[in-house]
User: Which sequence fits this backbone?
C-alpha cells in the first residue's frame, strides 16, 4: 500500500489491525480518559453515597479531559464519546432515582455488542474484518483469503470475550442493586481488562505476517461451496 506524509503504510493485516486498534482506543490518553470518569464516580460514591455528587464528579472529570484536549488541539472523539455515555447514564439514573441505573446503559451496550459479534462470527463476517476492508479498495476483499478470515475471527472472539465477561459480572450486581460493587467492576473491567486483551492480541499480531493485499477470486463462502 502507498505511504502518506512519509509514513510507511501497513504491509500486513497484523500491522493494519494494530494501527486501527490504536486509533480506535485513542492511545494511552484515550485509555486514561475512559478510566477517569468511572474512578471519579467510585470515589464520589464511596465518600458520600450521594448519586448527584458522584455523577457530578464523573461529568466534571470528563469536561476537564475535553478542555485539555481542546487546549492541546487533539482529537475530541474519545472525550466526547465519554461525555455522551456518562450523560446518558446520568439521565437514566436521574429518571429512576436508583444509583445502580448509572451502569445500565453500559451493561446493555456490552450485551448488544456481544450479540453483534456472535452473529458476525457465526456468519463468518467477523467485525474485525471490516477494519481491514475499510482501508482497501475492495471493502470485502479480505473474505477471499481464509487466513485473513481466520485471524479476524480470532481477534473478534477476543473482543467478544471482554464484552461477555463484563455482562456476566455486572448484570448480577445490577439486579442485586449493589452500586459499590458495580462501580468497582466498572473500573476493574474497563481499561485493565482492555489492556489484557490488547496484550493477547498484540502477541497474536506480532507473530503473524498475513499479507494485506488479498488475491482476487471468489469470496470465502463461495470457495467453500465450490
Assistant:
Amino acid at each position: 500500500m502507498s505511504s502518506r506524509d512519509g509514513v510507511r503504510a501497513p504491509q500486513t493485516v497484523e500491522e493494519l489491525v494494530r494501527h486501527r486498534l490504536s486509533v480506535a482506543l485513542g492511545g494511552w490518553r484515550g485509555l486514561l480518559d475512559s478510566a477517569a470518569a468511572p474512578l471519579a464516580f467510585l470515589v464520589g460514591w464511596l465518600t458520600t453515597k450521594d448519586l448527584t455528587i458522584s455523577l457530578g464528579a464523573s461529568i466534571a472529570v470528563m469536561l476537564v479531559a475535553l478542555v485539555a484536549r481542546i487546549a492541546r488541539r487533539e482529537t475530541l472523539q474519545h472525550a466526547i464519546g465519554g461525555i455522551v455515555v456518562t450523560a446518558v447514564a446520568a439521565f437514566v439514573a436521574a429518571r429512576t432515582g436508583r444509583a445502580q441505573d448509572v451502569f445500565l446503559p453500559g451493561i446493555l451496550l456490552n450485551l448488544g455488542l456481544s450479540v453483534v459479534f456472535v452473529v458476525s462470527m457465526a456468519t463468518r463476517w467477523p467485525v474485525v474484518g471490516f477494519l481491514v476492508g475499510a482501508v482497501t479498495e475492495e471493502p470485502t476483499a479480505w473474505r477471499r483469503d481464509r487466513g485473513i478470515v481466520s485471524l479476524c475471527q480470532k481477534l473478534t472472539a477476543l473482543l467478544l470475550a471482554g464484552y461477555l465477561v463484563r455482562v456476566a459480572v455486572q448484570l448480577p450486581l445490577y439486579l442485586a442493586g449493589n452500586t459499590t460493587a458495580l462501580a468497582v467492576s466498572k473500573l476493574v473491567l474497563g481499561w485493565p481488562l482492555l489492556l489484557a486483551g490488547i496484550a493477547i492480541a498484540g502477541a497474536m499480531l506480532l507473530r503473524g505476517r498475513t499479507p494485506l493485499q488479498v488475491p482476487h477470486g471468489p469470496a470465502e463462502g463461495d470457495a467453500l461451496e465450490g
Remarks:
- The two ends are 31 Å apart (CA to CA).
